[in-house]
Amino acid sequence: MKITLTYNLKKDEEGRPADFCSEYDAPETIDAIKGALETKGHNVALLEVTSTNLLSYFKKHSVDFVFNIAEGTRSSCRESEIPALLSLLNIPHTGSSHLSLALAMNKATTKKILKYENIPTPEFQLFQKGTEALKTGLKFPLIVKPNCEGSSKGICKSSMVGNENELYAQIRRVIDEYRCEALVEEFIDGKEVTVGILENGKITILPILEIDFSSCKKSGEFFYSWRMKEFQGNSDLGLTPTFYCPARLDNNTKKEIEALAVRAHRALGCRDISRTDIRLNHDGKPYVLEVNPLPGLDPIESIFPKMARAAGLDYPDLIEAILLNASERRIAS
To answer: Do the Cβ atoms of 167 and 229 come closer than 8 Å?
Structure first.
């Protein structure tokens, strides 16, 4: 099959925040996916996504299928840009539709959908101006996040706040630096797990992965901040989470978490692949934090390939499974 791999390349941009390009992929990830597809016998062309080259590329080149890992350009719905264009051009692609990607990119909208589906998620409030009164009933500690960012952009040690002065300082920081609304939600102080799903007509749930932050006392960061993701394993900074896959869960809790992840995957209309982040409170009740229909595929650092390996899928088989899921869905439709 003739495959075009669409991606955004991670690079430093002068004058931008340090985490500006953290959603984008390193050359090693792009090479790994290309190599995996070629190992399976596919002919792969690379297309780095910019705001100016897409239409001209697809007009000039015959493309059987697109393997999409592109984050898009600058819009608040940027992850949906490439799938929307491919849908317009009737070019099949891996992954979720532009609608699902746009919904998932907006954390508050995702949480509204989860609440409508009676899927537990932390209580929250969206701040657009930064001057709104705090909603009655929201309990400290709270955590402040950019509403339309991924890869933990804008999330740092000080994002977790214990009083209103700290809260409004963080809300202003997010609105000013990231030029989007600030999502404020109750912090669930318990075990963090993540659930990977592969879908090919039926749901395949990968082994649940637990992220243990108890060894990160030096950093003072006990959640997935941007630094935790970017400098993971750095003992000098204390950014040394421990991963357990499968997670240390009793069988009933495992089944409950798996069921929630499947419900969240379906609520947002995800296809082929998704990763759902969940925290358990001190009573063991799970809360869905967010759903990622476009999880990272770095063969070494990313969580989804870790879960796939625990399920016995090596990296080329994982990449091929994503492609086959999408191609079989295309044939079925």
So the answer is: no
